[in-house]
């Protein structure tokens, strides 16, 4: 990451937040008596370094644009605070050698010479803090905190005020506290609220954070109303929505630890029962964390809600500056319907059979996402949750998998990086003999990568019949797993940045819900899940009233997607399973039919084309069979899905040629004469405009020139793609003339 935090500096954070020496002694008791500098707020413009303390941390959210601070509440010995030339604020026990100027209000640090820590080793072994503490090393003498992101500056709604979480941070491995207690420190760290996003994410009219009060776990709440919605917004306004993945529990160290909001949602104390924990109540409910609902002013049943996806950013872990996702080869995956593995052994839905792959998202130097790299793979273990219940399959994401060690970015097990689980995460235990079975790197080499296609898996208006799902097993309302006419868990990778979804409103206020964000997925979502990750979405909602609907949605009763170059119709085995089935919870058996999904998609596509473009049925069928691509959306969500991609070009009367660059239909002649490879384009471009001109900059200038008289063109969300196509068209023309 090379992004700048909103407060104007880069704040680094170690990935080794929880390091304890194997021979650690008991923790010293903190006190406030006889200590100076307590209660003062110390800002740190660059880095925060805690040396030789085991620290209990309270996170406090600050207003947007505020400078991070640390406040010392209590300690077992007098803390020393120093500010280094590089902007590092260091806190260490008095007598510890640290480098930096003293901060007014607390005792100054001694000169940077080796000095033993009070109460240290029998032999008085010195503890020395390096001038520049390094991250992610067991021998490091400091824990560094990092938040290298931009925070949106516009905030229209109140978020959570204070979030208290206990964490035990690293202390110097070089010190030896045998025979004495470990120095302790209680601090409060203030960080700006709102999820970190890229600088070009932009502002929005509203902000909806993901908290225990704004997320629902696994169901569409039948008691939700416009008055009780998490947020209210008007048509035409924009909103930033935080989405937390339910897969975060697959790797505490990478996807939970250090992110206060995620820690709060997944926190499960050892004395909390399953009934009182905010978690999926399976088998009746689903698994997804959905943020909302959002009340849209004036929305009434029969209206159409248009949702434009303007931006979609990964949620970087504040503790590491990295972003991760996981894939679970779930019990719901299609492979279990096949029956047998390649070696002839059966696929069985029992504990220890589901493979989990943890991915890291790799960026270039400009912070552009490049691909997903598999880090390591393991089999989901048999566990007991904090309430003592057995968890045999990956069906309850609120239970954190208790890995003993953190895993390195190359997939190897870092023995020097054990994970210490704080209260709320320390009451889950693996019951498999031998512990968790890791498949990498010994068995799975993971020498491959995944193309990233960020999208929203679950985007829905509240169904008016969610209560139909209620039975003796279900708790709360309709499961978030099956999609239906209201949208929901469609799991179409095309529903990403630049896309627009249309939904028919079913309840007053529409009550929009957002969840289940994915970094990548293939058609079918074969294994039961995609590359599940937390993200932050920037959306614009537009309300179309029932008495004045645009023609493209005038007869729509189902979720329609519009992209830059196509419309996508979504069909399901049951178009409205909550009404169609006597017991909607049987959808996981009844809805497993591609034939029914194809039939539903065919009928919807045929009728929509006839209504919108005034076609005869015969010409509609002719158009569909020659121009429309039908594909499998997913075969894992109970209500299986088929989609139809309708290219807009077939109705374009501008005379523009069809873009064959993404097809296999170009013949040898066309490829030789009309299409250039990358090297040829660069060479021709240099001859046309010179070696010192960047193609992107030239494309932007060309686009602005061509669209100067078009007021709407400059705001189009696909203008970058259009600019690129203009340049390529000009190069192809020059090549053809040569």
Description:
GO terms for molecular function: hydrolase activity, acting on carbon-nitrogen (but not peptide) bonds, in linear amides. Keywords: Signal. The structure is a single chain. With 738 residues, this protein is α+β, with helices and mostly antiparallel strands. It is built from eleven helices and 36 strands. The strands form eight sheets. It has a nine-stranded mixed sheet with strand order 11-15-32-17-29-33-34-36-35. Strands 12, 14, 16, 26, 28, 30 and 31 form a seven-stranded mixed sheet that branches. The chain has a five-stranded mixed sheet with strand order 1-4-10-3-9, with helices on one face. α6 (594-613) crosses α7 (617-627) and α10 (695-706) packs across α11 (719-737). The chain is globular and about 85 Å long. The two termini are 43 Å apart. Mean pLDDT is 79; it is low at 1-24, 105-178 and 666-674.
Strand and helix map with partners:
Blueprint lengths: L40 E3 L3 E4 L3 E9 L6 E7 L3 E5 L4 E6 L7 E2 L40 E2 L17 E3 L19 E9 L13 E3 L6 E3 L1 E2 L10 E3 L4 E6 L8 H4 L4 H7 L22 E8 L7 E11 L9 E5 L6 H4 L16 E9 L5 E11 L3 E2 L5 E2 L13 E3 L5 E6 L10 E2 L24 E7 L16 E2 L7 E3 L10 E5 L7 E9 L10 E2 L2 E10 L15 E3 L3 E7 L4 H4 L6 H4 L3 H20 L3 H11 L1 E6 L6 E7 L20 H6 L4 H12 L5 H12 L12 H19 L1
Parallel strand pairs: 2-6, 3-10, 11-15, 14-16
Antiparallel strand pairs: 1-4, 2-8, 3-9, 4-10, 5-6, 5-7, 12-16, 13-27, 15-32, 16-30, 17-29, 17-32, 18-19, 19-20, 21-22, 21-25, 23-24, 26-28, 26-30, 29-33, 30-31, 33-34, 34-36, 35-36
């Amino acid at each position: 990451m090379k992004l700048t935090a909103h407060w104007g500096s880069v704040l680094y954070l170690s990935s080794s937040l929880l390091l304890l020496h194997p021979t650690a002694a008991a923790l010293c008791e903190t006190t406030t008596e006889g200590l100076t500098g307590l209660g003062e707020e110390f800002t740190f413009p660059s880095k925060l370094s805690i040396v030789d303390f085991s620290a209990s941390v309270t996170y406090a959210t600050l207003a947007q644009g505020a400078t991070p601070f640390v406040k010392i509440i209590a300690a077992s010995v007098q803390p020393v605070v120093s500010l280094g030339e590089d902007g590092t604020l260091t806190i260490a026990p008095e007598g510890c050698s640290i480098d930096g100027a003293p901060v007014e209000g607390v005792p100054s640090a001694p000169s940077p010479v080796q000095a033993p820590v009070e109460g240290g080793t029998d032999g008085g072994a010195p503890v020395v803090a390096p001038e520049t503490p390094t991250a992610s090393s067991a021998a490091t003498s400091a824990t560094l905190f990092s938040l290298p992101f931009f925070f949106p500056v516009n905030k229209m709604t109140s978020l959570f005020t204070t979030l208290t979480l206990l964490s035990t941070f690293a202390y110097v491995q070089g010190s030896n506290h045998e025979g004495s207690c470990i120095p302790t420190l209680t601090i409060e760290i203030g960080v700006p609220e709102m999820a970190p996003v890229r600088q070009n994410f932009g502002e929005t009219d509203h902000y909806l954070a993901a908290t225990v009060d704004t997320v629902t776990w696994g169901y569409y709440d039948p008691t939700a109303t416009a008055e009780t919605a998490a947020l209210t917004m008007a048509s035409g306004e924009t909103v930033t929505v935080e989405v937390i993945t339910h897969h975060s529990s697959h790797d505490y160290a990478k996807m939970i630890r250090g992110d206060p909001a995620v820690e709060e949602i997944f926190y499960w104390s050892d004395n909390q029962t399953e009934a009182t924990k905010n978690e999926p109540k399976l088998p009746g409910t689903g698994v997804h964390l959905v943020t909302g609902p959002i009340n849209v002013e004036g929305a009434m049943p029969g209206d159409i809600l248009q949702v434009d996806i303007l931006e979609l950013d990964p949620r970087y872990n504040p503790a590491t500056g990295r972003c991760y996702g996981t894939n679970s080869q779930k019990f719901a995956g299609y492979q279990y319907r096949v029956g047998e593995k390649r070696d002839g052994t059966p696929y069985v839905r029992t504990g220890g059979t589901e493979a989990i792959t943890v991915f890291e998202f790799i960026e270039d130097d400009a912070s552009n996402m490049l691909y997903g790299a598999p880090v390591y793979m393991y089999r989901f273990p048999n566990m007991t949750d904090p309430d003592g219940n057995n968890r045999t399959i990956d069906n309850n994401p609120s239970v954190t998998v208790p890995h003993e060690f953190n895993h390195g970015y190359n997939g190897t097990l870092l023995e020097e990086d054990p994970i210490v689980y704080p209260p709320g995460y320390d009451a889950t235990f693996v019951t498999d003999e031998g512990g968790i079975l890791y498949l990498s790197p010994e068995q799975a080499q993971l020498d491959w990568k995944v193309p990233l296609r960020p999208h929203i898996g679950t985007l829905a208006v509240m169904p008016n019949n969610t209560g139909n799902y209620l039975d003796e097993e279900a708790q709360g309302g309709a499961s978030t797993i099956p999609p239906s006419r209201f949208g929901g868990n469609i799991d179409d990778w095309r529903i990403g940045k630049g896309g627009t979804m249309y939904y028919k409103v079913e309840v007053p206020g529409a009550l929009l819900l957002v969840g289940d964000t994915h970094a990548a997925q293939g058609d079918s979502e074969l294994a039961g899940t995609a590359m599940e990750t937390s993200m932050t979405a920037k959306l614009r909602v537009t309300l179309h009233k029932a008495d004045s609907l645009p023609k493209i949605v005038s007869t729509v009763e189902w979720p329609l997607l519009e992209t830059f170059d196509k419309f996508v119709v979504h069909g399901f085995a049951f178009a409205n399973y909550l009404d169609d089935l006597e017991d909607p919870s049987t959808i996981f058996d009844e809805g497993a039919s591609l034939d029914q999904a194809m039939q539903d998609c065919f009928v919807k596509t045929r009728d929509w084309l006839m209504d919108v473009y005034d076609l005869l049925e015969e010409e509609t069928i002719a158009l569909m069979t020659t121009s429309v691509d039908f594909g499998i959306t997913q075969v894992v969500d109970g209500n299986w899905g088929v989609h139809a991609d309708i290219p807009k070009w077939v109705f374009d009367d501008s005379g523009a040629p069809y873009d064959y660059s993404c097809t296999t239909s170009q013949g040898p002649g066309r490829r030789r004469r009309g299409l250039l490879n990358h090297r040829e384009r660069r060479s021709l471009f240099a001859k046309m405009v010179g070696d010192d001109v960047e193609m992107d900059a030239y494309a932007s200038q060309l686009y602005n020139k061509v669209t100067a008289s078009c007021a709407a063109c400059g705001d189009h969300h696909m203008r970058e793609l259009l600019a690129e196509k203009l340049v390529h068209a000009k190069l192809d023309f020059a090549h053809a003339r040569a």
